[in-house]
Write a structure and sequence with these properties.
By secondary structure, the chain is mostly helical. The chain contains five helices and no strands. The chain starts with a helix and ends with a helix.
Length: about 150
């Protein structure tokens, strides 16, 4: 009887597991670096996010949403690590890092329940959106100064 119950639970969970695995393996769209950053990264470019790892099929909606945000950030973060100029590498990496913070904050606003956490998420979105604009202008200025 126990085997039948376990088998029934596994079969019932398959559609949910497939949905979670698909949502993890196929992030909406990867974050993009400014053109200056991608040029500085050279041939490395932005690698594709890693495929879904085994064992992630048990994730709930919050876990899957946060993993999706992290996977969208992964490729651009890896590209930024290939930039030789330390100032460009820092600013380009932080742009993507902030995009990830904004994506995680959006998950909190959508799925979170605690008002104080939601207020923190709103503050992060406001602050990091402004900082992304500042860092993007900085990388463009650094590129012009290099020429």
């Amino acid at each position: 009887m126990r085997r039948i119950t376990i088998l029934a639970l596994v079969i019932a969970a398959l559609p949910i597991a497939a949905w979670v695995k698909e949502s993890i393996a196929m992030p909406d769209a990867a974050f993009e670096l400014p053109t200056v950053c991608t040029k500085a990264a050279g041939s490395m470019g932005a690698p594709k996010p890693p495929a879904a790892m085994d064992g992630m099929s048990g994730m709930d909606e919050v876990q899957a949403a946060n993993m999706n945000a992290m996977m969208k950030m992964h490729g651009a973060m890896m590209a930024a690590t290939m930039i030789k100029d330390p100032d460009l590498a820092f600013n380009c990496g932080m742009i993507v890092h902030h995009q990830g913070g904004i994506a995680m904050s959006e998950v909190e606003l959508k799925l979170g329940k605690d008002e104080q956490s939601k207020e923190t998420a709103r503050m992060i979105i406001d602050a990091q959106t402004k900082e992304i604009k500042e860092m993007t202008a900085r990388v463009e200025a650094l590129a012009q100064n290099a020429n």
